[in-house]
Amino acid sequence: MIKPKIIFLAVLAASCLPGFADKLPDRAEKAVDYQIKVRLDVKAKQLNGQERITWRNPSQNSVGDLWFHLYLNAFKNSRSTFNKSRRLVSAKDSSWGWVDIVSMTLENGTDLTKAMTFEQPDDGNRDDQTVLRVGLPQPVPPGGEVTVRLVFRAQLPDLRVRTGHAKGTFMVAQWFPKLGVYEPAGMRGRETGGWNCHQFHPNSEFYADFGRYSVEMTVPSSFRLGATGRLRSKRDNGKGESTYLHEEDNIHDFAWTAGPDYVLVKRKFSGRADVTGQEYRQASELLDRPVDELLLSDVEMIFVMQPGHLDQLPRYEGAAKLALKWYGLWYGRYPYQTLTVVDPVGQGGGGMEYPTLITAGTTALFAYRPFDRIRFPEMVTVHEAGHEWWYGMVGNNEFEEAWLDEGINSYSTGRVMEKGYGKRGTMIQFLGLDLNELDTIRMQNFPSRVYDKSLQPAWSYQSGYSFYSYTKPELMLRTLENYLGQRTMARIMRTFHERWRFKHPASQDFIAVANEIAGRDLNWFFDQALKGTGIYDYEIAGVSTYPVPKRLGLFDEKGKKVLNPDKKGEKSPKDSPSSKPEVYRSDVLVQRNGEAQFPIDVLLVFEDGHQVVKHWDGKSRWTRLSVDYKSRLARAEADPNRQIELDVNWANNSRRMSSDSRPAVKLASHVLYWLQGMLAFIGLVA
């Protein structure tokens, strides 16, 4: 008989062989191919590029035009939709950025430049030039291809929203003319086929087709460069310039950074050395999958560091390994050979994701006690690396359904942080205070907040993009996990990722998977939590306990009429050892203050320690629960296990028979004020 440990090691060794036994799709259905050559002009802060794009028509329709994103034009002037939404009233000359297409031709040389027009599909703002349409002389037939060649020039602005230059370093993102997504009829619920190509808004991110990228970047030889994909070659061109060729398949964007002061450090994540046998087995049991379906591949981690932050490299490395391990085990192995983590220069460069490249962020302050117990660098690294799964591989439309990556990834980030750093103190262990990631999220969900729908275009929220894309969806998924159980929730997440890996899902696709795996209709929940505006707030509005009234008067018992049955055989007060009644009736008034409904438990705790749990469907505005018991009621609590993470006011969930809660509420308000100030400080220094 072979020992289980030997079996496990044999299975694990198989991960070194080509191919895996998992059900994961290993490639996308390629829709586009980019070949780009670009040169960085350091003095002018400009890019000069050539681009060859081949696009395949995925629909059953002939398509007579191409639509492009020109994201850099968001920074072109004060009248762009991006800057108008930010109410920009003044700026330095160096803060402007733009991209111009100098020429566009078909592969056969046919000039398309005169067929280019700027479009404003979202708001009709004629001053916005972030979307460009070009008419084709001949439509592209179903399944057919078209190749266009572009020459473009781009001006990089001062570093802002992860794009631009700062202190001689360049963060180059959303920099090249990029095709939108042609969605055939039926895709993401679409009735008719057409281009999905939104303008660039302050609170919107990106959406593009999967394909192959081959990018040559020419920079000063004194610069160090980090980029999406694998380094295929580097050549010295003479005259102080070098050209780097990076390539990658099954991705939908390309970003890079370069600067003279960067230090590149390489580390390795090993699917064998960095994941224990016990961790593989735990994941196998959780997901009900054999271990050989969960094996992880090796990844080269490339850290692009500022010299002054090298002492924090172990923090970045540990967090990146955590993400590769737990996202990989729970959702599916990381399919690329590299992950590049950039320690950015400037406040506008951190906390962003691109395929196989992320920007993290820290400050020198976090290297010293007690600030080294603030795990902001770890959290940002885990979160951005997690986007390789949610956005990178599962390519949702971030313009229209931002929660599908930000909300799901925030939920996943919290879970990974708990795995790596424990349930408590995963985020902050500071001056005797232990806060995990979920604590910091809950603080944003308060009773006075007016809810908006999470499921709407990212630029259309009344306010609070972050809350509705990140916070509320994370609390929604935490609530769903508490309701269904961790194992069911884990299987929902794994199944959703497997089915939509290298594809473009919609919210309804996630809901369909949740209903299927849970084996029940959960639409009532998503209609409220995702598509609705109602708040969740259950309250213990009143408690009372009193002796059960004696049965006095005439009662029918066993066919006989009995007068005052409870007085029968009763001792006189002077003969009774105690006048304490035998039974007390305890009443609890439970109230639903919000519009959203959720089934809850109500816990009754009596003076002798006895506990009773009552269940309420939570649908009516209130209910009164009564229990007869030999001891008085001490306290009552709604949702004692805190299933409803979406509840805006846990302070009103419990009530004691006799207590003054005002000092506690006052203290809690002071603590909350302090915490909010501290979190604002952390965001400022980071």
User: Structural class of the helix and strand makeup?
Assistant: alpha+beta
- What's the pLDDT, averaged over the residues? 90
User: Could you name the CATH homologous superfamily of the largest domain?
Assistant: Neutral Protease Domain 2
| Uncertain stretches of 5 or more adjacent residues | 1-18, 573-578, 660-674, 680-686
The domain tally reads 3
Give the DSSP E fraction (strand runs of 2 or more residues): 25-35%
Looking across the biggest beta sheet, what order are the strands in? 4-7-2-1-13-16-15
Helical amount among residues, as a percent range? 10-25%
Describe this structure in words.
The strands form 9 sheets. A 7-stranded mixed sheet has the order 4-7-2-1-13-16-15, with no helix packed on it. Strands 18-19-20-22-21 form a 5-stranded mixed sheet, with helices on one face. It folds into 3 domains: 22-260, tricorn interacting facor f3 domain (Immunoglobulin-like, Sandwich); 262-528, Neutral Protease Domain 2 (Neutral Protease, domain 2); 538-675, Sandwich (Immunoglobulin-like), CATH 2.60.40. By secondary structure, the protein is α+β, with helices and mostly antiparallel strands. The two termini are 56 Å apart. The chain has 12 helices and 33 strands. β19 (299-305), α4 and β20 (338-342) form a beta-alpha-beta unit. α4 crosses α6 (403-421), α6 crosses α8 (465-484) and α9 (486-500) packs across α10.
